[in-house]
């Protein structure tokens, strides 16, 4: 009795559930790896002709790594005259985030400000970490923790890369892109336990690999996303509801 009263008086915070703790650990693993890749963007953006402040504004306001690299890549090859094509490529590549929004919207929680911020932070990594969690509470924690870690880290490393880009030389030699991809793969791998997710992963990878050499940046990613849409709508290689009903034990029957 005394311990309960003392805990209530001191305002002791409730302990996190194991699912929430696991979601936070995943957020740090993915977030730190992705944030480190911001050094590459900062250095490449300045090398492409952008000022330090322009580079930092891109990360603050656009905050979509693939779109940012697409924009800078086109500018680097075509200069200021390629501005229109750069914007078009970035928009196409960023369109996938609107698809993610449909999936993560129920996880965000109420509040206009929260939803506006979530719209800015709905990216590959926040969606991946959130949807990998088993409960609504852990999904919400995964989304927000990943968003905070990547947003703060990405903008800090963007500034760092822009300031010391000349001293880094070829930033691709450090393998930061591989670190981000490895963290993403580590998050995805445990989910490949059934045929349907494996089909989606392989199909999307093949579609993207085939289309990347022949189509503008952004379109191969959207085409790969359509693989998941088609498989999901048709439930191709999925478990039918009738099969699930047969697999469930009868609550009135024998145990």
Structure explained in plain terms:
The protein has 255 residues and is mainly alpha-helical. Helix content is 75%, strand content 0%. The chain is built from 14 helices and no strands. It is globular and about 50 Å long. The two termini are 40 Å apart. Mean pLDDT is 74; it is low at 1-7 and 241-255.
Briefly characterize the structure.
The protein has 255 residues and is mainly α. It has helices at residues 2-10, 18-36, 38-47, 52-61, 65-78, 83-94, 96-108, 112-121, 124-131, 136-168, 176-188, 195-211, 219-234, 241-247.
Layout: helices, strands, pairs:
Elements lengths: L1 H9 L7 H19 L1 H10 L4 H10 L3 H14 L4 H12 L1 H13 L3 H10 L2 H8 L4 H33 L7 H13 L6 H17 L7 H16 L6 H7 L8
Helix pairs in contact: 2-9, 2-10, 2-11, 3-5, 3-10, 4-10, 5-6, 7-9, 9-10, 12-13
User: How far apart lie the N and C ends?
Assistant: 40 Å
Mean pLDDT: 74
Instruction: Tell me roughly what share of residues is in helical segments.
Output: over 70%
Strand content: under 5%
The helix-strand sequence is HHHHHHHHHHHHHH
Poorly predicted ranges (pLDDT <50, ≥5 residues)? 1-7, 241-255
Give the biggest sheet: none
Please, how many helices? 14
Shape: globular
What is the radius of gyration?
A: 22 Å
Q: Structural class of the helix and strand makeup?
A: mainly alpha
Let me know the number of strands.
0
Attribute tags:
mainly alpha, 0% strand, 255 residues
């Amino acid at each position: 009795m005394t311990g309960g009263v003392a805990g209530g008086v001191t305002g002791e915070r409730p302990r996190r559930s194991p699912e929430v703790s696991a979601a936070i650990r995943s957020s740090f693993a993915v977030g730190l790896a992705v944030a480190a890749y911001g050094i590459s963007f900062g250095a490449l953006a300045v090398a492409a002709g952008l000022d330090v402040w322009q580079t930092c504004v891109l990360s603050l306001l656009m905050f979509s790594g693939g779109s940012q690299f697409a924009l800078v890549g086109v500018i680097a090859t075509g200069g200021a005259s390629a501005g229109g094509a750069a914007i078009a490529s970035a928009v196409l590549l960023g369109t996938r985030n609107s698809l993610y929004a449909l999936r993560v919207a129920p996880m965000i929680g109420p509040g206009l400000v929260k939803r506006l911020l979530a719209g800015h932070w709905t990216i590959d990594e926040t969606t991946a970490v959130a949807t990998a969690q088993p409960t609504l509470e852990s999904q919400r924690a995964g989304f927000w923790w990943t968003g905070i870690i990547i947003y703060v880290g990405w903008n800090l490393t963007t500034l760092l890369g822009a300031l010391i880009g000349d001293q880094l030389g070829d930033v691709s030699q450090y393998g930061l892109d591989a670190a981000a991809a490895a963290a993403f793969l580590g998050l995805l791998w445990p989910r490949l336990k059934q045929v349907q997710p494996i089909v989606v992963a392989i199909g999307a990878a093949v579609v993207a690999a085939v289309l990347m050499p022949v189509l503008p940046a952004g379109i191969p990613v959207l085409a790969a996303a359509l693989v998941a849409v088609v498989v999901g709508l048709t439930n191709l290689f999925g478990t039918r509801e009738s099969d699930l009903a047969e697999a469930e034990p009868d609550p009135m029957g024998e145990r």
